[in-house]
Specification:
The protein is mostly helical. It has seven helices and no strands. The protein is elongated, with a radius of gyration of 26 Å.
């Protein structure tokens, strides 16, 4: 932009600001705030180990990301300062990669084929295996409910009919 004429330069600056605003509107406000917070934690981590936050100076940025993932997982680099789950670590790494991509840098998580680097993939898989299974309530299969309802109606009593109605 330094080579642009002065009259055009102001217009270009306004246009670039408008483009940045358009990009920021591509996600919800809460998602943008979360990404901004995650980037701030990444910067704090890089500052704590005296590392380049853009990872430009590293031929292989994956070890820095692995260290960040490890410290984020243990709580040292997480916002809550408590251990977090594998998906939370994955999201933090994704935010770093997408923020760098938004700055015109390559996403350091990705290999030359555009896939997550094998080392990060293996590390995240190990974290996922260490996490406890999610607490989900499994629904009762529909055929079981249909059979119980049929048995309750077949009993031909008001009480059983009420139970069948409640099952339905």
């Amino acid at each position: 932009m330094a080579a642009a004429p002065a009259a055009t330069r102001d217009h270009l600056i306004d246009s670039f600001r408008a483009v940045a605003q358009d990009v920021s509107l591509g996600v919800s406000a809460s998602r943008a705030a979360s990404a901004s917070s995650s980037w701030a934690h990444w910067r704090a981590f890089c500052h704590s180990i005296n590392a380049d936050e853009t990872l430009e100076t590293y031929a292989d940025p994956v070890p820095a990301l692995q260290l960040y993932a490890r410290q984020y997982r243990s709580g040292e680099a997480s916002p809550s300062k408590r251990p977090v789950g594998a998906r939370t670590v994955e999201q933090a790494l994704r935010t770093v990669g997408q923020t760098l991509a938004g700055l015109g840098r390559p996403d350091p998580r990705l290999n030359t084929f555009g896939d997550i680097d094998f080392r990060l993939q293996r590390q995240l898989r190990a974290y996922a295996r260490q996490d406890p299974p999610p607490n989900r309530v499994k629904p009762i299969p529909l055929p079981v409910l249909q059979h119980a309802t049929a048995l309750a109606y077949a009993a031909a009593s008001a009480r059983h009919a009420a139970v069948a109605d409640m099952l339905i």
